[in-house]
């Protein structure tokens, strides 16, 4: 620990100027209650002052309830806000709860809005349109997940999430409240495909599987005709004569 010596006060009298080290280096200390308590040797008061300063720092770093709700309304989760601010999750949840209800209500209202098509708003609602699209494509419409959040421009973005096989999918719409439930406009390709009445390609393309016909029975290959040994007279095998074996000639002539 380096030792310092007091060399004076700053012009305003708020700091004590100290000096130490070789070559000399100057430092300044705030002339506050902590320094006075340390000078008097009042360790109890000094401990309280240090704890209060740390509490003030923690409160300063904490998000205000208004900031918490603004981040949740913009789409952040409770866990994300707690992690970013270093706050306790229970505190974030307390202020986030009414905003999460607001987001859920906006998503519910958006499902009753009418998709905007090329020729104007559709007769069916967004929920009816999406349910029809999923059933047509062989997907389960009962496991859809809806969410919504407000953008900086004040408009609502609605997210539809679903799972097909092992893949997670999402489609996004712009929700505009209004008469007769309001309207929703597709933001991305997935949303456009869901509300397009003439779009018949599956939402999750499947690879074509080659057709194998197991009913046809392959005809057995024809058997080769059996070869019969060459026979001599009267159907008996030809037996070489003794002289043929001894002299290497065929019976009936010379080789």
Strand proportion: 15-25%
Helix/strand class = alpha+beta
Number of domains: 3
Distance between the termini: 122 Å
Question: What general form does the structure show?
Answer: rod-shaped
Number of strands: 9
Please explain how this structure is put together.
The protein has 255 residues and is α+β, with helices and mostly antiparallel strands. It has three domains: 12-60, no CATH class; 63-104; 108-195, no CATH class. It has eight helices and nine strands. The strands form two sheets. A six-stranded mixed sheet has the order 5-4-9-8-7-6. A three-stranded antiparallel sheet has the order 1-2-3, with no helix packed on it. Strand 4 (114-117) and strand 5 form a beta hairpin. Helix 1 (33-40) runs antiparallel to helix 2 (43-61), helix 3 packs parallel to helix 5 (89-111) and helix 4 runs antiparallel to helix 5 (89-111). The model is unreliable at 55-60, 204-218 and 250-255 (pLDDT under 50).
Name some characteristics of this structure.
9 strands, three-stranded antiparallel sheet, 255 residues, alpha+beta, DUF3071 domain-containing protein, 3 domains, SepH-like, DUF3071, six-stranded mixed sheet, 8 helices
């Amino acid at each position: 620990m380096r030792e310092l010596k007091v060399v004076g006060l700053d012009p305003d009298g708020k700091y004590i100027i100290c000096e130490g080290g070789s070559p000399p280096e100057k430092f300044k200390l705030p002339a506050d209650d902590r320094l006075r308590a340390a000078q008097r040797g009042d360790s109890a008061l000094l401990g309280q002052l240090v704890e209060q300063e740390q509490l003030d720092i923690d409160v300063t770093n904490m998000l205000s309830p208004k900031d918490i709700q603004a981040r949740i309304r913009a789409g952040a989760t409770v866990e994300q806000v707690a992690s970013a601010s270093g706050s306790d999750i229970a505190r974030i949840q307390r202020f986030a709860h009414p905003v999460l209800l607001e987001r859920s209500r906006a998503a519910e209202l958006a499902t009753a809005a009418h998709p905007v098509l090329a020729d104007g708003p559709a007769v069916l609602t967004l929920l009816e349109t999406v349910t029809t699209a999923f059933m047509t494509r062989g997907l389960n419409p009962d496991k859809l997940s809806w969410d919504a959040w407000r953008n900086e421009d004040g408009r609502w973005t609605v997210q539809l999430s679903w799972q097909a096989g092992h893949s997670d999918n999402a489609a996004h719409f712009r929700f505009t409240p209004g008469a007769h439930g309001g309207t929703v406009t597709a933001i991305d390709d997935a949303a456009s495909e869901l509300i397009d009445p003439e779009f018949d390609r599956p939402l999750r393309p499947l690879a074509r599987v080659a057709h194998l016909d197991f009913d046809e029975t392959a005809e057995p290959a024809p058997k080769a005709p059996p070869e019969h040994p060459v026979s001599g007279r009267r159907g008996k095998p030809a037996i070489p004569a003794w002289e043929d074996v001894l002299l290497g000639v065929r019976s009936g002539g010379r080789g």
